[in-house]
Amino acid sequence: MPARKTPPVTKPTAKAGRASKPAGKLQKPLAARVETVPKPVDATTLFEIFSRLRDANPEPRAELHYVNAYTLLVAVVLSAQATDKGVNIATTPLFAIADTPEKMLALGEERVRHAIRTIGLFNTKAKNVIALSRILVERHGGEVPRTAAELEVLPGVGTKTASVVLNVAFGIPRIAVDTHIFRVANRIPLVVAATTDKVQAALERLVPEPFLLNAHHWLILFGRYICKARKPECPRCPISDLCRYPSKTMEIGAT
Catalytic annotation on 178? Predict the structure, then answer.
């Protein structure tokens, strides 16, 4: 008896003019949460902001320890990708025996490297400290130059480092922009700019003259201790009512 043939299975086709049913529910498209960037504060508000920062800290000081322009230069070079506290721990004994470029050269790279071994990137930084010390002795008579152009050609010295040295050591109004100042300036906002160089140029142009010399210190300390990156402490902020940041914390430690 011949085997019975199984009829072929055919898939149903969609009826004309009627779309086939999707296999499942469509996912909603993902959308990033975007905050509207407020406009920078006006000149009157800017003046009031710095007035309050000055009132809160009339004589701000750098937190890096140094004894002269040379040790300040070395300390700022060492502070790249490191904390001021960590740098101070390493440089206190170092500067006690080498507070001039001549003395630092006499120590030599190996001893400098050992002295700063607790600081990140200490190998490269030790090379830079010895190299810049040699240039200072050979080209500048052991003195730290007072122009940005001369400072920025030294090994390990960029715009920020040069600006700090000019401002702190020589009293030249410059605003060195680090991560704290960059965040604070764009958050309030004092300025809205995408790079540290642009923020620095804008701040040095806009900050009123009475505040320009100490603006660097006020902003960096404000960003370090109050207007923190992850959890700004808005309830104890002296300029909270002037700040336009849209995501203020309602209580200290809130997100």
Answer: yes
